[in-house]
Design a protein that fits this description.
Layout lengths: L1 H13 L4 E5 L3 E6 L3 E8 L2 E8 L5 E9 L2 E7 L5 E7 L2 E2 L1
Antiparallel strand pairs: 1-2, 2-3, 3-4, 4-5, 5-6, 6-7, 7-8
Length: about 90
């Protein structure tokens, strides 16, 4: 029985995430197998995302702007707290 439980736990950990999107390159509506649905809007070097999780009722958002080799990210997490990050050449703080 322990082997069955351990095998099941490992299969859940190794299960790949699934996401599907519909729309164009500038606007997409997406959902995944974790209960998330989100919209992505791209305008030039700016990307905006608004998300919702139907299982938990949580919402979040993220805005990203790229200037040269630097991308500035900011948003609101599922708990309503703001956050920000800057990435230079793919290395983020």
């Amino acid at each position: 029985m322990k082997l069955v439980i351990a095998s099941l736990a490992l299969s859940l950990i190794a299960a790949p995430a699934y996401a599907a999107c519909v729309g164009s390159g500038n606007f997409q509506s997406c959902f995944d197998n974790s209960g998330n649905s989100y919209s992505v809007t791209r305008m030039g070097n700016h990307t905006m995302m608004q998300g919702h999780n139907s299982e938990t009722g949580s919402n979040w958002s993220q805005n990203s702007t790229t200037v040269g080799n630097t991308t500035f990210h900011n948003g609101i997490d599922k708990d309503g707290d703001s956050w920000s990050s800057t990435c230079i050449n793919g290395i983020c703080n």
